[in-house]
Amino acid sequence: MHITLILLAVAGHVSLWVAVINRLHATSVAGRRRTLVTLAGFAGLLSVPLACAAFFFHAGLPALRLQGASPLVLAGLGYSSLCWLALALATAGWIRRRLLGRPPELLRYYRAQVFRPGKGDRHLLPERPFGCFAQKVPVPFSRPQDKHHFLARLPGNQILDLDLSELALELPRLPAALDGLSLVHLADLHFTGRVGKSYFLEVVRLANQLQPDLVCVTGDLIDNRDCADWLAEILGRLEARFGVYFVLGNHDLEFGGPLIRRLLTAAGLIDLGSRWIEVPIRGQRVLLAGNELPWFPPAADLSQAPPPPPDGPPRIVLAHSPDRIAWARSADVDLLLAGHTHGGQIRLPLLGPIFAPSRWGVRYASGLFYAAPTAMHVSRGLSAEFPVRIGCPPELAHLVLRSPAAK
């Protein structure tokens, strides 16, 4: 019995410290402070079980008895109780997500296909952006001219794969005239040089072939100053009928937000950081806004914007973090696009993602969510600072918006 309780306490300890690490990364901590906080979190994750093992090795399991227990043992039992509670909450969250979770009703369909543009292969692409993935034509991919980090080519590493996903969403307040409006959602490119330029050029080519109405880029674009010219050279090639829009993320804060904004706007992209604009589309108006909190305050002030539907235009917001979901709901947003979590980056069999930098842990690690009036799409992102992905390929998302009034 003692052994079982100890093992459960260890599992709860891991759950507790993973939750702490996830939530610390949801704050505005950046740069070296973020690294120190991460190291401190993992030090706590590893040191407490080692200290407890050393204690029980010295004192033996009878030290768990309460009668005549020392203050150190009582403190340990108190912390163990906290760990058991953390394990119970983590288990309940896992059951809710993995066993009871269902796709939102507004999802009409979801289709996906994995490409490997970073490995120089030839693949197939859907013949039509909105068509069934069963209809395809061959698309030649050029061989990469640059080298990727050796970790990128490890067996099982999916950092060079690309999941092209297509989602049709029925937004309850979307006007019939905007039925079929298409968006390409890109997030977390993380230009480090560890994943070569050719990979991202192929991503852009795929995105352009979808011929979207809007392209939305939701932050964490660059980590290495040597890749500064990639911003214009790669992202400047993105094409959309009604514009390419971006917001920045926490890694962009470390690089230098003002410089990134200048480079991207000079390349033709439209900055939505801390502001909103109206875009005329098909004789209608669409409100686009940005929320880069907590790294680049303030969020767009939608209290000064036109009213939401049905009296005003539908509202689409670009954010870096899915933690902005509560703000989006309070601001009457119809669609929120976010990234930041990388989908967990490593997904374990059965357990799923473990680490996700969010105040909600892995609850919004990736996918589609709905809490009226806001639908939220969280991208798994296109790359990562550390070039390893397992069970979680990068994602290029193609969203097709549908109107219930068009049925």
Mean pLDDT: 86
Count the beta strands: 17
Low-confidence stretches: 120-144
Task: Report how far apart the termini are.
Answer: 61 Å
The CATH architecture assignment of the largest domain turns out to be 4-Layer Sandwich
CATH topology of the largest domain: Purple Acid Phosphatase, chain A, domain 2
Question: Can you walk me through this structure?
Answer:
The structure is a single chain. The protein has 407 residues and is α/β, with parallel strands linked by helices. It has two domains: 98 residues, no CATH class; 300 residues, Metallo-dependent phosphatases (Purple Acid Phosphatase, chain A, domain 2, 4-Layer Sandwich). Strands 1-4-17-5-6-7-8 form a seven-stranded mixed β-sheet, covered by helices on one side. It has a six-stranded mixed β-sheet with strand order 9-10-11-12-16-15. It is globular and about 75 Å long. The termini are far apart.
Write out key terms for the chains shown.
2 domains; 407 residues; Purple Acid Phosphatase, chain A, domain 2; globular; seven-stranded mixed beta sheet; alpha/beta
How is this structure best summarized?
By secondary structure, the protein is α/β, with parallel strands linked by helices. It contains 8 helices and 17 strands.
